[in-house]
């Protein structure tokens, strides 16, 4: 199970994505609390899945 609140895991996750705003996403993630971090992770994960389907 991935720790969705881990900065290291989020950074690895971002590196797998083809995004232009990785740095700002990572900065926002570092400032967020655990609940918000999980939401941020899930939003990106869901968005990616949605994009792959279309």
Task: Give the structure's gist in a few sentences.
The chain has 54 residues and is mostly helical.
H/E element string?
A: HHH
Q: Specify the helix fraction band.
A: over 70%
Query: How many distinct helices?
Result: 3
Separation, N- and C-terminal Cα atoms = 27 Å
Structural class by secondary-structure content: mainly alpha
Q: Total strand count, please?
A: 0
How many domain modules? Answer: 1
What Rg, in angstroms, do the CA atoms define?
11 Å
Major sheet characteristics: none
Structural summary, described in words:
This protein has 54 residues and is mostly helical. The protein has one domain (7-53). It contains three helices and no strands. Helix 1 runs antiparallel to helix 2. The longest helix has 20 residues, at 34-53. The model has no long low-confidence stretch (mean pLDDT 88).
Q: Helices and strands in order, then pairings?
A:
Blueprint: H1 7-16, H2 22-31, H3 34-53
Helix pairs in contact: 1-2
